[in-house]
Design a protein that fits this description.
Layout (H helix, E strand, L loop, with lengths): L4 E6 L4 H9 L6 E8 L8 H4 L12 H4 L3 E3 L3 H5 L4 E4 L5 H13 L4 E3 L15 H4 L6 H8 L6 E3 L9 H9 L4 E10 L11 H4 L10 H12 L2 E3 L2 E3 L5 E8 L6 E9 L7 H10 L3 H4 L10 E4 L7 H4 L2 H4 L2 E8 L5 E7 L3 H17 L6
Parallel strand pairs: 1-2, 1-4, 2-3, 4-5, 5-6, 7-10, 12-13
Antiparallel strand pairs: 7-11, 8-9, 11-14, 13-14
Helix pairs in contact: 1-15
């Protein structure tokens, strides 16, 4: 492309915002031109705003260091610097919703990581390998809200990325999955910074994460749902029971999943593994820069996947699965793993933006 799209980041100084800054360095389609955060950071250079709390395992990209941090609430100053924004806001739900709506109303596409709009019936919640067609609701969203070129697209909760694509791959191959039991073991980076106190998590597991179980049980149904009359109607044939735990791992969300089939079942474990290893979807067909070459990677080792060894698979964007075996309660069980701040957060948001660009919703 001749000219890159100027993009901004709302919440640029937080954990997810930092990951966006890092991943956007030298992106072939997008150029980071604006960073915005809280009033406390406004007016500082980005380098000074994150001094002492830069948590990415590489240096701040040179281009980003001297960008002046804007107040994310000063919408007029941000929209002068970019044509679309990635939202990694850490405000309460209503304030986040209001602010994202404000940007969209001024003609700025918002690609959001926040949970504020995940239950909004005309806002698509996208995992591009699963429901790229849900972007078709954007024209209806814009008409309903009186927006011109602005709109809102969200990505789901980070832990869902660790298992839903393998489940969908089987559904896409014609198997009807109607029951899931999911136990997540979620890394501390998912709580942001400063996140969980060290005395609470070191040598410990916390069997509660606020609102996580509800998100884990509800969000897959919207992702697997259908567009009907300008609304996304959640899938009603799938039942999910979730247990969500915070564990002393820095990055990498793991899920232990049991699944039940209604009707035809896979003939063997080898058939399931073959489906997973051969699965590709829209991002691979479109050759999106952030997309993994192989979305699902099956590990044959008896003790894999593991966060430290597998979270970085294929740019941190692949889902690693393993330990497929029969389940004594449902039908099959497996372990899934994904990088929560890359695939589950900033990388997933960038992949959504790439999909939107290819579909003509983002322009320079």
């Amino acid at each position: 492309m001749e000219r890159k799209i100027d993009v901004g980041i709302l919440g640029a100084t937080g954990m997810v915002g930092q990951r966006y800054v890092s991943l956007l360095e030298n992106h072939p389609w997008f150029k980071l031109t604006s960073v915005a955060a809280s009033p406390n950071s406004a007016g500082k250079s980005y380098e000074n705003a994150v001094a002492g709390r830069w948590h990415i395992d590489r240096d701040i990209p040179p281009h980003a260091r001297n960008l002046t941090v804007r107040d994310a609430n000063d919408v007029d100053s941000v929209v002068k610097e970019c044509s679309s924004v990635f939202s990694a806001l850490e405000l309460n739900k209503q304030d986040t919703m209001n602010l994202e709506n404000k940007y969209a109303s001024l003609g700025i596409p918002v690609i959001s990581n926040s949970s504020a709009h995940r239950t909004t019936e005309d806002v698509p919640m996208i995992i591009p390998e699963i429901n790229s067609s849900h972007t078709d609701i954007i024209p209806s969203q814009k008409i309903r809200r009186g927006w011109n070129s602005g709109f809102i697209v969200v990505k789901p909760n980070c832990s869902i990325q660790s298992y839903l694509t393998p489940v969908y791959a089987l559904m896409n191959d014609g198997f009807n999955i109607n029951k899931l039991i999911v136990t997540t073991m979620q890394a501390v980076s998912g709580a942001g910074y400063p996140g969980v106190a060290s005395l609470d998590i070191i040598e410990n597991i916390i069997p509660y994460i606020s609102n996580e179980e509800q998100k884990t049980e509800d969000e897959p149904k919207k992702i697997l749902g259908n567009l009907i009359n300008g609304k996304i109607i959640p899938c009603s044939s799938l039942s999910i029971s979730a247990h969500c735990n915070r564990v002393p791992v820095i990055d990498g969300h793991m899920a232990c999943v049991s699944l039940g089939f209604e009707g035809r079942k896979p003939s063997s474990l080898e058939e399931v593994i073959s489906i997973w290893n051969s699965f590709t979807s829209v991002p691979q067909k479109l050759n999106l820069p952030q997309a993994p070459t192989q979305p699902i990677i099956y590990r044959e080792e008896i003790d894999r996947p593991q966060p430290r060894k597998d979270r970085g698979a294929d740019k941190g964007m692949a889902v690693s699965v393993g330990r497929l075996r029969k389940c004594n309660v449902l039908d099959l069980r497996f372990v899934g793993l994904s990088h929560n701040t890359i695939r589950g957060a900033a990388g997933g948001g960038i992949l959504n933006a790439e999909l939107l660009f290819k579909k003509g919703y983002l322009q320079a």
